[in-house]
Amino acid sequence: MAFESMEDWLKYSHDRNISAAEAVILEDMSDRGVSREETWSRMSAMWNAMKSSEQSYDRSLRSHSGLVGGAAGQMEDYLKAGDSLCGDVMGKVIMRALRLGESNACMKRIVAAPTAGACGVLPAVLVTAAGQGGFSDDQMTEALFAAAGIGQIIAARAYIAGAMGGCQAEIGSASSMAAGALACLKGGSPEQMADAAAIAMKNLLGLVCDPVAGLVEVPCVKRNVIGAVNAMAAADMALAGIRSTIPADQVFDAMKEVGDKMSSSLRETAEGGLAATAAGRAVSERLKKNR
Amino acid sequence: MNLYDILGPVMVGPSSSHTAGAVRIGLITRRLLGEAPAKADIALAGSFAATGKGHGTDRALAAGLLGMQPDDIRIPRSLELAKDQGMEIQFREIQLKDAHPNTALLHVEAGSGRELELQASSLGGGRIMVNKLDGIDVNFTGESHTLIVHNLDQPGHVAEVTSMLSHKSVNIATMQLYRNKRGGYAVMVLETDQPIPEDSIAWLSHLEGVIKVTYLNTMQEDEHGV
Questions:
Q1: Which domain, by its residues, includes B15?
Q2: Which of residues 165-224 of A touch B (CB under 8 A)?
Q3: Do B125 and B92 have their domain in common?
Q4: Which of B90, B108, B133 is the last residue of a domain?
Q5: Can you tell me whether residue A257 is helix, strand or coil?
Q6: Do both B94 and B205 map to the same domain?
Q7: How far apart are CA A84 and CA A242, in angstroms?
């Protein structure tokens, strides 16, 4: 069985004096009855797929609805001028999150992490961090094990589907996984990984799933950006030694409680929030006519 | 959930339920038919009908019928590829009572004349459930080797199938029996841990009272279609 609490996971790692990622590898080997080589090569294939999905972005593509496409190209041009508020590293995180979100909407190949709608968060921060810190593919694969371990705990305690818990369950979970992975990558302790994951999720608690016309486009593409930027900030806070007052497990439990209280109109049904605005409804009507 | 339910699948976007799951529904239909369909009538229900176009559900289903996997970068062009191959595909909308919101009903016909009707729903994360086969309620995911036997509802057919499997050292993981009425038309669905030899499948299909045998071999996962 996979870990169902951060507490169990950290204790398991401490007792055996192994890294958090190593604990996830051992758990997966026993959970699925596979060898270390098998799970390692599968995770490293995920990392390679993430890298190539980011690189294969085509700024000329538009989604079937025409709502998204090209934004990452605009961001790239803007960054080239060297005058952005966020600077080079955060600028690249923003651009990459847009690339992935748009590629997904344009039917390109992506890695669901944990969902297709949130596929931009992990690659945006990890590809950028790999370039910035000169990390090897093996180190990145290890970070993905940590990310997946966090996702398993979130899935066990709450949700990873917008239809169940709103966007906090998709972008929130992706951001929490990414923050923890970044903390591990930068050599943070397992406690700092847990704090990064907790802080990232806390910041996105309550986020609703309100896709215009029911499509994974508006606001999903740009929410990948906030998930990625938030993960960077949460990881930096945790690595600075800033603690999360609420432990990760309790934050995830709170996410479930908030999701349970969320009206169904705000859980992927396209009946509330941005989907129900005048502009959102106009898009939906236009697409219905072309159906 | 296992690790790779969280990270993965690698898939063509935009939606694991409306795109990746739809590819798998098409693919499982092709495998159950046992050959490439020449004609397909695809009815979309619920959210598949409402938002399918924007999610590429139509192209995803066609891609699966062409034998593509959910990560095949040709999925967006599948309708053109189907046309090039002479595969006729028609789409329509349908209202289905008590069906999961993401459901498709497919009627396919091969050049050989073999036909199949399948109703399946997409459960999220790319996972699917086959709900009906040739009008009879069933329940299987297509994640294991699956043997489906259509037979007359008369004594002995279950024993024939299970003793054959025992003889071939194939372990049964799950087994379900369905029939439309007493003495009528029956279907058994068996999920097995090991693959079933082809000659045993052929032997089964020649037994008296057995109408049709369909076999889904998950070892074919690496086929790449078109």
A1: 3-133
A2: 177, 213-217
A3: yes
A4: B133
A5: helix
A6: no
A7: 27
- B10 to chain A, any CB pair closer than 8 A? The answer is yes
Q: Which residue has the higher pLDDT, B222 or A164?
A: A164
CB < 8 Å to A160, chain B: 1, 6
Total domain count for chain B? Answer: 2
Which tokens is A286 given?
């236009």
Domain of B58, CATH number, reads: 3.30.1330.90
Please report, for the domain that includes residue B150, its CATH number. Answer: 3.30.70.260
Q: Which of A185, A215, A202, A205 is nearest to A259 (CA)?
A: A205
Look up the CATH number of the domain holding residue A17. 1.10.4100
The answer to whether B56 contacts A49, with C-beta atoms less than 8 Å apart, is no
Whether B162 and B206 map to the same domain: the answer is yes
Measured between alpha carbons, how far is B83 from A50 in angstroms, rounded to an integer? 32
Structure confidence by residue, pLDDT tens digits, A106-148: 999 999 999 999 999 999 999 999 999 999 999 999 999 999 9
Residue-wise pLDDT for B5-21, tens only, equals 999 999 999 999 999 99
| Any domain includes B118 | yes
Domain end position, chosen among B72, B98, B133: B133
B168 and B216, same domain (yes or no): yes
Q: Is B124 on the interface with A (CB under 8 A)?
A: yes
Whether residue A250 is predicted with pLDDT greater than 70 in this model: the reply is: yes
Mean pLDDT score of chain A: 96
Question: What is the pLDDT confidence band of residue B222, given thresholds at 50, 70 and 90?
Answer: very low
Look at residue B160 and tell me whether its pLDDT is greater than 60: yes
User: Is A1 within a domain?
Assistant: no
Is the pLDDT reported for residue B55 higher than 70?
A: yes
Q: Does the residue B140 lie in any domain?
A: no
Task: Establish if B72 belongs to a structural domain.
Answer: yes
Q: In which domain, by residue range, is A49 found?
A: 6-289
How far is C-alpha A3 from the chain's CA centre?
Answer: 20
Residues B153 and B41 in one domain: no
Query: How many separate domains does chain A show?
Result: 1
Instruction: Evaluate if residue B221 carries a pLDDT over 70.
Output: no
Q: Judge whether B139 lies within some domain.
A: no
- Which among A24, A105, A287 has the least Cβ separation from residue B14? A105
B101-120 pLDDT, tens per residue?
A: 899 999 999 999 999 999 99
The confidence band for B226, taking pLDDT boundaries of 50, 70 and 90, is low
Nearest to A151 by CA among A121, A124, A131: A121
Instruction: Give the range among A66-70, A160-164, A287-291, B203-207 with minimum mean pLDDT.
Output: A287-291
Beta carbon pairs, A and B, within 8 Å: 130
